[in-house]
Design brief:
- There is one protein chain.
- By secondary structure, this protein is mainly β.
- It has one helix and 23 strands.
- It has one helix at 4-11, and strands spanning 14-16, 22-27, 38-44, 49-53, 57-65, 68-71, 79-80, 85-87, 93-98, 102-110, 118-120, 132-135, 142-148, 157-166, 169-170, 175-176, 181-187, 196-201, 210-215, 219-223, 230-232, 237-246, 258-259.
- The strands form six sheets. The chain has a seven-stranded antiparallel β-sheet with strand order 1-20-17-22-14-13-12, with no helix packed on it.
- 45% of the residues are buried.
């Protein structure tokens, strides 16, 4: 059965992000149980603006609701719609003006001087390939849209959006990538009373040795180590923005995930 100290550690991996206006720090090294990944939330009311400064970080915002205009950056003069995203390396800033009430989730990591500013338009009609993918099978099948894919240069982060099936599992079979990367899952489009569960456990096959976090819109769960599948309640789809942050630039790969060998045969 579960080691109490492990349980207490994993219970601290869940966060509920604020809905109040402003820029909110959710998960950062030194305050959360992580070394590489940073997660912020920006709630920007209509007609207000925010100047996003990256400082020493690379930052990758995705717009989850509303629309906005980007200005004051020579490469990012774009109108943003739902699920559009952009990236800025360290030492950059951009002005974000809300055309409607907006919610941004923002992933980040330490910038190592790799990567250039870019804007990505969300396009659900993209064929299955490098950006638009289908992962898993059966009750574990999910749709993935990369917002920052491995082939696009960046220092440490890879990110994307995932939509699971109704009442289904995502990230199944359970996986971990603790040697090279840590991850955060940031849930959206699951307003209460809709909910799902984010499952965490540390050792292969220790399915009695787990902690579950109830997740819904605004929930964010850290996965610094161990295995981390998720599951939705009936009629609900687990939908989330995920951010992988490598400990070193050469660990920035989507192929580092290791499935739990005790459960790999149960693919759904």
């Amino acid at each position: 059965m579960q080691n109490q100290s492990n349980k207490e550690r994993m219970e601290k991996w869940g966060f509920q992000s604020p809905e109040t206006p402003g820029f909110h720090e959710i998960i950062v090294p030194g305050k959360a149980d992580c070394k590489a990944v940073y997660i912020y939330r920006l709630n920007l009311p209509k007609n207000e603006y925010y100047i996003l400064n990256s400082g020493e970080l690379e930052l990758h915002p995705v717009l989850l609701s509303g629309s906005a205009q980007l200005t004051d950056h020579p490469l990012l003069a774009q109108k943003m719609e739902r699920f559009d995203s952009f990236y800025i390396p360290g030492g950059n800033s951009v002005k974000i003006t809300a055309l409607e009430d907006c919610v941004f989730y923002i992933g980040g990591a330490k910038c190592e001087g790799i990567g250039s500013p870019f804007f990505r338009k969300y396009d659900p009609s993209l064929p299955i390939g490098d950006i638009h993918q289908i992962h898993g099978q059966g009750v574990g099948q999910r749709e993935v849209m990369f917002t920052l894919d491995p082939k696009t240069p960046a220092s440490r982060i890879i990110a994307g959006l995932t939509w699971g099936g109704q009442g289904a599992w995502t990230s199944w079979p359970p996986h971990q990538h603790e040697k090279y990367l840590e991850e955060a899952y940031c849930y959206f489009d699951m307003p209460l009373p809709k909910f799902g569960f984010h499952v965490s456990y540390l050792q292969s096959g220790d399915v009695e040795d787990i902690v579950t976090h109830t997740v819904h819109s605004g929930s964010m769960v850290l996965a610094p180590c161990g295995y981390h599948p998720t599951v939705a309640s009936p009629s609900v789809r687990n939908t989330y923005f995920w951010v992988l942050a490598a400990f070193e630039p050469d660990g920035r790969s989507y192929e580092k995930a290791v499935e739990d060998p005790a459960l790999t045969q149960y693919k759904g």
